[in-house]
Amino acid sequence: MKRISIDPITRLEGHGKIDIFLTDEGEVANAYLQVPELRGFERFCVGRPAEDMPNITNRICGVCPEAHHMASTKALDALFHVDPPPTAKKLREMFYSIFYATDHTTHFYALGGPDFVMGPDAPVAERNILGVIKKVGMDIAGKVLKMRHDGHHLIKMIGGRPVHPNWGLPGGVSRGITEEQREEIEKLGLDAIEFAKFSIQLFNDIVLGNEAYVDLIKNDAYVHRTYNMGTVDENNHVNFYDGMVRVVGPDGKEHAKYHPKDYQDYVAEHVEPWSYLKFPYLKKIGWKGFEDGIDSGVYKATPLSRLNAADGMATPLAQAEYERMYDVLGGKPVDNTLATHWARLVELLYATERWVELANDPEITGDTFRVLPTETPTEGVGEVEAPRGTLTHHYWTDERGILTKVNLIVGTTNNNAPINMSVKKAAQGLIKKGTVIKEGLLNTIEMAYRAYDPCMACATHTLPGQMPLEVTIRDAEGEIIEQLTQNL
Amino acid sequence: MTTLLLGLGNPLLRDDSVGLKVAQLLRPLLVDRSDVTVDEDYWGGLRLMERMIGFDHAIIIDAIISGAKPGTVHVLSPGDMPTQRSISAHDVNLSTALAVGREAGASLPNNEHILLIGVEAADVQTFDEELTTEVKAALPEVITIALSALKEIKGRDER
Fold first, then answer.
1. Which residue from B13, B109, B108, B92 is spatially nearest to B46, judged by alpha carbons?
2. Is B132 on the interface with A (CB under 8 A)?
3. Closest C-alpha among B76, B94, B107 to residue B1
4. For chain A, which residues make up each domain, given as ranges?
């Protein structure tokens, strides 16, 4: 077998490596996204007070610390058997909506969006946020930076610290907001709604207005018919902060709807010898390998999955965009991986609308934002929708609240199997006997996994910024027959 | 002239915390330098660029893995940072981020006023708050480099 590997020169950022194994005939046999192991997390946590977890877990990952903070805080609510007052829940959800809007903005403009706005065939050097600025106009840079700036400013204002909030406590939050702060949150939220509408218009003009791009979204190389997972409210509308986990099948029918604390009854984890990262699957369907379809337990938990798993959006503008997306793409569920970028924009709009809705809630400035836990801690599960998928924290403690066991299923882990399937399918579509390995192939594979916005890293900040890639093609004996490098 | 001295890193991942530890060690040594802001952060890319807004100079200290001997100290500039393509897909590189900021009209240090000090890490994958011995041994060198860069900035300022 020949082996093609897309190999980082350093592992400083992302820690991922794609290996594509070819048969002797030059066809794709298998494709693997490998993730190095981060060691000793459980050992690091056990023996510490559970209340430390919101401030430890928000440092696991440089990408979504707020999501870990929130899942961890909710796990503490459950662990200490305490129900936060309405003001606390609303403040948490508003904070979380602001984080979502900021995070989805970054992904669309800096990461996923350039693939579309510039087109998949654009040179790598132009397929980035700078290319977008050149194509769309200079003022977009200011708009994106303002959105990020406003988001980070409010996250700091509400959460106590930039990036790593230290605000969540079992039973509530450490402080509320003043009327003056509420007014600022509302004002910046209204700006954010306009920004989200602008982003959807941009997607509409540049992507949907171009038949070739719509064909790309619909291209079979990017289709996976799997189950979809997402958190829903009492109306089966998408909710990021709280609700029931709903799983809908490739046939669009509800497979399960469960309280997050019961996740172990519904989700099990498959292990492969080549990957440290496990492969969650639906327990009642079973692991049938890296397969599509209703008989395979593989599921996705992405922005698109959340929309597929729900019956709609809880805010008017997002609902209208939700309906339009399904109209254009031919009804529910949509299984086109690249439509995840569109779904992310629907969620961006929802996040900004929800942000303003909560800023206008009469209880949001209330002064009862915490109830003190009085019961003995035992075990608790906390769950939120992280931007990259359903995020579950599960803690066990002794009677003093000292951690004895910790289990986390993070957003990207849910998508581990579908990411590998998408990479393989993208490679299969483009590597045929005799095909020359060229940039288009790498772009296509990259686009396949980038749609999931995978988060493998907890050190994504480290130098040198982004990873150079090296593509090595090996023959059946493992000898290098060709080596391609990019951006070195 | 104002200078941002920023340690980057994850405090929980062994050598990845080296930038943060250097910032913590430098902070008390720089209390008299009102022109220097010492801080710690977690992110590169766009956020790192955003942190530099409003400063004339920036000194960034972070862990790096380039294949050199652990503890080796690299002194780099933004132009030395390669790549557009990333498996991480989570941020843009620093050069791109700086260009975006400049397009948006942000007041950023010139590239030649941005100094990146990378400390070659031995282990950034184990949850631990302590540095490895090799990286710990490099701390005096990093501090000397940072202090002499700050001295030079001040000297140039006074000339």
1. B92
2. no
3. B107
4. 2-38+434-486, 83-221+336-372
Number of neighbours of residue A211 by Cβ within 10 angstroms? 8
Q: Residue B93 is nearest to which of A39, A442, A466, comparing CB atoms? A: A466
Residue A372 φ then ψ, to 5°: -80, 135
From chain B, pick out residues whose CB is under 8 angstroms from the CB of A37. Answer: 125
B13:A138 CB<8 A: no
Helices (H), A360-464: 411-414, 416-430, 439-450
Check residue A17 and give its pLDDT: 66
Residue whose entry in the numeric block shows the structure tokens 């459950």: A78
Closest partner residue to A463 (CB to CB) among B85, B118, B127 is B118
| Total count of domains within chain B | 1
Interface A-B: count of C-beta contacts within 8 A: 216
Give contacts of B52 with chain A, Cβ < 8 Å. Answer: none
Model confidence band, residue B90 (pLDDT cutoffs 50, 70, 90):
very low
For residue A376, give the amino acid letter: T
Task: Give residue B23's domain range.
Answer: 3-158
ipTM, two decimals, is: 0.81
**Tell me, what's the pLDDT at A13?**
38
Q: What are phi and psi of B126, to 5 degrees?
A: -110, 135
Domain CATH number, residue B136: 3.40.50.1450
- Does B88 contact A110 at a Cβ distance shorter than 8 Å? no
Mean pLDDT, range B105-128, rounded to an integer:
90
- Span A83-221+336-372 CATH architecture: Orthogonal Bundle (1.10)
A-facing residues of B in 84-113 (CB < 8 A) are 84-96, 99-101, 103-106
Residue type, A201: Q
Interface residue of A463, A470, A486, A488 to substitute, partner B, most B CBs within 10 Å? A463
pLDDT of residue A350: 98
Structural tokens at position A176? 């509320």
B 7-66 residues with CB below 8 A of A?
8-13, 16, 41-48, 50, 62-66
Average pLDDT per 10 consecutive residues for chain A, totaling 488 residues: 38 52 80 69 89 87 82 97 98 97 89 73 73 81 92 93 80 96 98 97 88 84 93 98 98 97 96 81 96 96 97 98 95 93 96 98 97 96 94 95 91 86 82 64 73 57 37 52 45
